Amino acid sequence: MTDPYAGMVVDAHHACQRGTGSYPATLARALNSHFTADALAIISQWPGYTPTPLLALSGMAADAGVGSVLYKHEASRFGLGSFKALGGGYAVFRLLAQRIEEETGHVPQVADLLAGCYRDITRKVTVTCATDGNHGRSVAWGASLFGCNSVIFVHGTVTRQRAEEIARLGARIVRDPGNYDDAVRAANAAGEANGWLVVSDTSYEGYMTVPLDVMRGYGVLLHETLAQLGNRQPTHVFLQGGVGGFAAAIISGLWEHYGEGCPRIIIVEPENAACLLLSARNGRPSVVSGLHDTIMAGLACGEPSLVAWPYVEGAVSDYLAIPDEAVRVAIRQLAQGRGQPPVIAGESGAAGLAGFLVAATDAPVRQTLGLDGRSCVLLIGTEGATDVQMWESITGRRLERPA
């Protein structure tokens, strides 16, 4: 095939074949299908809920020399353009429901919370978090949906458009000059000082419950995907890295569902923010310092989530670090359609596809991963064009419809 991805594997780490046994009980205690069912029961009552599509990218499969490429397209999720609505919104709901139960002695119904029946309580609550864009947008959306306030911390490289999209949902924006992890610390400090509820998608010592709720919300995505797969079983799953929470949520569902037949799982990260690759190489959670400059804004994270790391370490076979240019090429190819309807994907959303295509054209990596004509590759397109100006600059096209 024509190879626009030649030489784009910046770094790769093979951690041997993981996740080949049954799903460990130690991991299942925190993430399992029962928690997913609970999350689905809540989320399916929200206005606008509908499963996002699973697309077959047959042209890309043929070009890459594999049997099939399946792409879970999250651009339409709740009108926010990203899977993150499932996690941040669900965590906000859980925190507010807990506060309402503490003050009234009653567990609130979803419909009552949506209708503003507990406005006297929720309007006194402020939620806060740090974000690269999508998580903060989901938390602000959840706050707006359920009637509380939000203050969202963005770091120095978050684009103005992403910050403005969050502000349109009613959030107050605070910009921190450092990196994502600095913004996390700033949000935590502000939350403690002001009595705000911190809704972080990453965990650290002493803070595990809320990130787990975020991950349980993400599990709804995998629940939908398994139903859409039917009798098709993926052989390879390429997942975006970040702090690891998204990957851990998908891993837990795959491992529980397939057991010893779990697909080979590969993590894809930006070359400047490959904290999961570094952690795997070091055998412990490790920090990548610096500003993590990358167009993959949602993956510009230097510190793994402690609650997510055991799932990643236990199941992931391989880690890839790729340059921004690989993502630009993937976004353009999706936009071109290649004989199919165009797919609108953002920079982090296309990262899994970019990692797969980079691996498929690098002979040693392809051989290591066992990619061949029988492979069924599953990708999660985690976002649409959440920064329209960025998408238009990459593709040279004008976006005529919402992401």
TrEMBL record:
Cofactors named for this entry: pyridoxal 5'-phosphate
Enzyme class: lyase
EC number(s) recorded for this UniProt protein: 4.3.1.15
Keyword rRNA-binding carried by entry: no
Key word Cell inner membrane present: no
Record key words, sorted: Lyase, Pyridoxal phosphate
Domain Tryptophan synthase beta chain-like PALP: 47-361
Pfam family, one: PALP
Domain of life: Bacteria
GO MF annotation list: diaminopropionate ammonia-lyase activity; pyridoxal phosphate binding
Signal peptide: none
Protein name: Diaminopropionate ammonia-lyase
